[in-house]
Amino acid sequence: MKLRIAFCMLGVLMVMAAVAAAADVTGKWIAQMPGRDGQTREVPFTFKVEGDKLTGTTAGRDAETPIADGKINGDEISFSITRNFNGNSMKMLYKGKVSGDEIKFSMTREGGDQPPREFTAKRAK
Fold first, then answer.
1. What is the DSSP string of 41-57?
2. Where do the domains of the chain lie, and which CATH numbers do they carry?
3. 15-53 burial string, b = 16+ CB within 10 Å, else e?
4. DSSP secondary structure letter of residue 100
5. How buried is 4 (Cβ within 10 angstroms: 0-12 exposed, 13-18 middle, 19+ buried)?
6. Are 72 and 58 spatial neighbours (Cβ–Cβ below 8 Å)?
7. pTM of the model as a whole
8. How many angstroms separate the CA atoms of 118 and 125, rounded?
9. Burial of residue 111 (number of CB atoms within 10 Å: 0-12, 13-18, 19+)
10. What angle do CA 91, 39, 93 make, to 5 degrees?
11. Parallel, antiparallel, or unpaired: how do β-strands 102-109 and 40-50 relate?
């Protein structure tokens, strides 16, 4: 019985350590995102982390958009953003790897056939 309790406690400690080891991306980030015309534009992201859940917003050309399906696991983050253009809904999928004050992202369009766009976001000072 004592051995079983010890293993349960070890499991709880391991889960807590994994959550504590998650990268802290809470705050504002500025990405240099390549556009379709070859020009780079600044795109701000604001993130909030609670455990392994990632929430926040990004600002587009017209409005602020909430992120959805946000997850954080160690130094990896993922989320999606859905925007509407002329009555058409477009879902963008983001995956990133955090390294200090930088996140290297890969973005794809759900159901799209284009290669992923790669870009880097840096923590705002």
1. EEEEEEEEEETTEEEEE
2. 2-123 (2.40.128.120)
3. eeeeeeebbebeeebebebeeeeeeeeebebbbebeeee
4. T
5. exposed
6. no
7. 0.78
8. 22
9. exposed
10. 20
11. unpaired
Distance of CA 81 to the CA centre of its chain: 10
- Between strands 40-50 and 64-66, the pairing is unpaired
Please, are residues 61 and 43 in contact by the beta-carbon 8 Å criterion? no
Structure tokens at 37: 């015309």
- The tens digit of pLDDT for each residue in 2-46 reads 656 544 454 544 444 444 446 899 999 999 988 777 788 899 999
Which amino acid makes up residue 4?
R
